[in-house]
Structure to design on (566 residues):
């Protein structure tokens, strides 16, 4: 689908928006981010998606009052979005809800609202802006085709407040950044002259309400401990924070640094001993928030000290990966840091952090995002269920599909023989196998009978009833309900992926392409993707499609072999 994302800042430093846009683009959607930043006239795009600027010329901002300037840039967003003729308008945060609704109205697109925070629970400097946000959400959120947010607590509030029929899709701000590797001291410690001394890290916004002043006060009472405020160097209050450090006599141990590119962020993070997030307990939004930095710290291997707020406590205390404290109490923060730094060599803590990082990663959230977009485009689960319901009442179809049908038995035996032949090396090496659209699990059961351990046989299917059948057919095989275009697994996991008459019954060309791309991403280096589809269209089954050879290539360099069987 043609997707227009609206963002009131730059996507380059917004890991959530960048991650979502890249995921949709990689799945075959045509994604453009319209953002409030200056871009070159011929921008090359980023991570597979295009970028368009909605920033008015500098002279406009200089010449107009701020309120008028805001109206101009909102109108620019609408103009840029309308020109793209999108099918989906994906509005990030409340500031983009109105222009998003206008673009959707003018183009006939559907509106997706991605609420990065509980907008009605934020402390606003302007009472008028707060009332405007409340009015806009009340008027527009119930009309959205879908709502996305960052935590379960916010999802519950939005559904209750606006009486939404469907609960908002929760996409947590989990990390999908490049792994840092072993810290070598070249990013923070060596440039700052810290050496092996204890290093506390706060990354991201250092704006008021983020606890940075309290953190400086706590560090001042811990001799020899250094504090890096990564990103504070870009903040308007950087001077005030530096002055606060001087007043506390710790200017030499408090380091205010600018933001770094996301591609190298975790390499910086990994050099610290503990990561800190001290959102104040000042509004409902903070109490329900799950900041990006929490997941980034865990991905870099750091234990954490965070505010004792409900959503944060659910992860930090529930998973045993750090300590929660009163963010307004310097003594409590100091004690939390003391305990965290004393546990620098705690192997059990490091194991819990590593386990949390492995589980709180993007593949699960990615599957939710892609599944939502599949529902917006096709409603595939309902369509497939309707197809199978129709087949169930067709006596001829039931006979044709029956494994005891002699003709069907011959076809299955020949195909099984070829699958075993082309996957022999991978099976001998102990590779895992994924059957996409596994149906009732007949193929999984056959592969188990031919020596593959059930624990290595994975299956996914859209229909829960078919998954139940597959689990019976192949006891012990991990089979779950999932969309073939939104696989809930890490990339490169499987040595063998099967697409057996999956794509011919998947619907339109765009959806077939996304299923193929998802299968290719799941394939390990040197793995084998086995695609079996009819060579000719079936005039007696209009629900299926002929798959042309040209549809099978996913990237240059892939070796593709074609074989015709009975």
């Amino acid at each position: 689908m043609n997707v227009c994302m609206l963002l009131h800042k730059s996507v380059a430093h917004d890991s959530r928006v960048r991650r979502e846009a890249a995921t949709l683009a990689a799945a075959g959607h045509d994604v453009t981010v319209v953002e409030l930043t200056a871009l070159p006239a011929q921008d090359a795009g980023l991570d597979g998606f295009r970028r368009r600027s909605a920033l008015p010329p500098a002279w406009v901002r200089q010449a107009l009052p701020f309120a008028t300037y805001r109206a101009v840039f909102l109108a620019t967003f609408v103009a840029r979005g309308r020109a793209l003729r999108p099918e989906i308008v994906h509005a990030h945060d409340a500031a983009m809800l109105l222009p998003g609704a206008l673009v959707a109205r003018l183009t006939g697109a559907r509106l997706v609202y991605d609420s990065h925070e509980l907008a009605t629970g934020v402390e606003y400097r302007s009472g008028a802006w707060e009332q405007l946000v409340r009015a806009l959400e009340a008027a527009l959120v119930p009309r959205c085709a879908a709502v996305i947010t960052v935590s379960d607590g916010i999802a519950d509030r939005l559904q209750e407040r606006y009486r939404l029929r469907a609960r908002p899709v929760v996409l947590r701000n989990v990390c999908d950044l490049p792994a840092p590797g072993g810290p070598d001291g070249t990013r923070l410690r060596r440039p700052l002259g810290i050496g092996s001394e204890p290093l506390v890290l706060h990354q991201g916004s250092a704006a008021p309400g983020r606890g940075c002043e309290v953190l400086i006060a706590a560090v001042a009472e811990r001799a020899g401990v250094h504090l890096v405020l990564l990103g504070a160097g870009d903040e308007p209050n950087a001077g005030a924070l530096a002055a606060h450090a001087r007043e506390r006599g710790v200017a030499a141990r408090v380091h205010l640094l600018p933001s770094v590119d996301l591609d190298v962020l975790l390499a910086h993070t990994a050099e610290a001993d503990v990561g800190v997030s001290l959102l104040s307990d000042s509004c409902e939004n903070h109490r329900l928030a799950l900041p990006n930095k929490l997941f980034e710290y865990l991905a870099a291997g750091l234990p954490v000290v965070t505010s004792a707020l409900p959503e944060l406590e659910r992860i930090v205390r529930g998973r045993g990966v750090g300590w929660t404290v009163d963010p307004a109490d310097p003594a409590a923060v100091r004690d939390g840091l003391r305990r965290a730094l004393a546990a620098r060599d705690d192997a059990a803590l490091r194991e819990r952090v590593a386990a949390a990082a492995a589980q709180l990663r993007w593949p699960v959230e990615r599957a939710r995002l892609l599944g939502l977009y599949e529902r917006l485009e096709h409603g595939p689960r309902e369509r497939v269920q309707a197809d199978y319901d129709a087949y169930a009442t067709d006596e001829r179809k039931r006979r044709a599909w029956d494994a005891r049908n002699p003709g069907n038995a011959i076809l299955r035996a020949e195909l099984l023989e070829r699958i075993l032949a082309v996957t022999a090396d991978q099976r001998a090496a102990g590779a895992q196998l994924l059957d996409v659209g596994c149906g009732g699990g007949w193929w999984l059961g056959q592969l188990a009978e031919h020596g593959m351990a059930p624990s290595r046989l994975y299956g996914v299917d859209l229909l829960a009833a078919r998954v139940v059948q597959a689990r019976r057919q192949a006891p012990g095989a991990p089979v779950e309900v999932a969309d073939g275009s939104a696989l809930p697994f890490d990339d490169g996991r499987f040595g063998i992926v099967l697409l057996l008459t999956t794509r011919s019954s998947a619907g339109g060309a765009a959806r077939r392409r996304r299923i193929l791309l998802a299968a290719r991403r799941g394939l390990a280096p040197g793995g084998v993707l086995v695609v079996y589809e009819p060579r000719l269209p079936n005039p007696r089954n209009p629900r299926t499609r002929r798959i042309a050879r040209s549809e099978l290539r996913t990237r240059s360099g892939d070796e593709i072999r074609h074989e015709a069987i009975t």
Summary: The chain has a mean pLDDT of 88.
